[in-house]
Input
Amino acid sequence: MPKRSVTKTGKRRSGCSLKFDPVGLESIFDVLDAIAWMSNATSTKIAQFTSMDPRTVGKVLKNGLTLEILDRVDDEYALRLPYPSKGSEDEKKAVLRESLYKMP
Output
C-alpha cells in the first residue's frame, strides 16, 4: 500500500477573523452603564465618568463596536440594544452573551 505524504502550507486558517482586546468584565459593565446614563457619550466623558484609564475605555468601546452592542456617530457612542444599566450582573451578562451568540 503506497504511503501518502502530508504537505504543510505554513498557513493557519482561523475560524474567526474578529479581534477582541482583553478587558475585564467589570470594565465592560462600567462603560456600558456610563453610556446608558449619559447623553453625548464621548470616550473622554466616559473615562471621566467611570474613573477608568482612557486606553481601557477605548478597548471596551472597540470591543462593543465589534460585538455590535454600540453605535458610533462622530465621536459619540450609543447603545444599539436594550441594556439593563440598573439590572443585576446576571442580566448584564445575558445581554453580552446574546450578542456573542448573534456573531457570525
Summary: The radius of gyration is 19 Å. Residues 25-101 form a domain with the Arc Repressor Mutant, subunit A fold (CATH 1.10.10.10).
